Amino acid sequence: MSGILEGKVAVVTGAGQGLGRAIAEGLAAEGASVVVNDVGVSLSGESENPSAAEEVVAAIGAAGGSAVASDASVAEPEGAEAIVGAAMERFGRIDLVVNNAGILRDTIFHKMSVADWDAVINVHLRGSFLVSKAAAVHFRAQGGGSFVHMTSTSGLIGNFGQANYMAAKLGIVGLSRGIALDMQRFGVRSNCIAPFAWSRMVSSIPTETEADKVRVEKLKRMTPQKVAPMVAFLGSEAASGVSGQIFAVRNNEVWLMSQSRPVRALHRGEGWTAASLAEQLPTAFGPTLTPLERSADVFSWDPV
């Protein structure tokens, strides 16, 4: 490893297994001291392995790294403060926050309950806000810091049965952009990564058709360890000029994703009526309307 994070302190939420664990271990290997946060719940949010964070801390220590465990909840203000507080108490500073914690409650929209909506929004979006807010005061005081938020192509592009997850993940993009704008004067950066990696967050993908089965087999080749180097880079001084961006990491590919900008315009000097819009808009805008695609429709080729 390059030691690109030597002397830095990172917080990784949802780091007890899968992608979060790979990121925590990767950051530690690059020289960072790591707060490994995980409440030890299942994919849907039920208690499963309360010692998950401790297990990752032990693995990092065995590899010669430095880490401390946190089992506080990202969805509560007190929990977020405790997570960041663990970094300050144990290591005396905080330089990088990786908002990775998340759960899934997939269901078709007309059957989605308020509880399913709230649970996903609270962990993904509210949790990212609360942990970022807790760290922001320290970043401002020390004149620097980096946020890396996990978004998803499900939010950026689309997917079936994930309206709650899509809303949360696209909301995280807005949160990241807002942080980047508000805190750039303090030397603070904020970016998003949409990771392609086989982990429990994608293990729930339906495999009802042969095409879905083929897709899942491809995903299994994309290990979460492939994402960690991008997180380490964004947390390092080498990325000092990179903020407010969205990246995707897929096996050996790194993508810079587009962000919303005007595509086409119509002007009518006397203003518009519903009838005149009906007459002109479909023809003028039709060829450039964004199609209703899933992530798999856009990233439809084999990873390299």
Compact summary:
The protein is α/β, with parallel strands linked by helices and 304 residues long.
- Give the low-pLDDT segments: none
Number of helices: 10
Label the structural class: alpha/beta
Radius of gyration: 20 Å
Q: Overall pLDDT, averaged?
A: 93
What's the helix-strand series? Answer: EHEHEHEHEHHEHHEEHH
Largest sheet: 8 strands, mixed
> Any idea what the CATH superfamily is called?
NAD(P)-binding Rossmann-like Domain
- Total number of distinct structural domains: 1
Protein name: SDR family oxidoreductase
Pfam families: adh_short (PF00106)
Organism: Paralimibaculum aggregatum
Family: Belongs to the short-chain dehydrogenases/reductases (SDR) family.
Describe this structure in words.
It comes from Paralimibaculum aggregatum. With 304 residues, the protein is an alpha/beta fold. The protein has one domain (9-259): NAD(P)-binding Rossmann-like Domain (Rossmann fold, 3-Layer(aba) Sandwich). Helix content is 41%, strand content 14%. The chain contains ten helices and eight strands. Strands 3-2-1-4-5-6-7-8 form an eight-stranded mixed sheet, with helices on both faces.
Keyphrases for this structure?
single chain; 304 residues; alpha/beta; Rossmann fold; eight-stranded mixed sheet; 10 helices; globular; NAD(P)-bd_dom_sf; SDR_fam; SDR family oxidoreductase
Indicate the topology.
Blueprint lengths: L8 E5 L4 H12 L3 E5 L14 H11 L3 E5 L6 H15 L4 E4 L14 H29 L2 E6 L2 H4 L6 H21 L4 E9 L13 H10 L8 H8 L10 E5 L2 E4 L17 H12 L9 H4 L6
Parallel strand pairs: 1-2, 1-4, 2-3, 4-5, 5-6, 6-7
Antiparallel strand pairs: 7-8
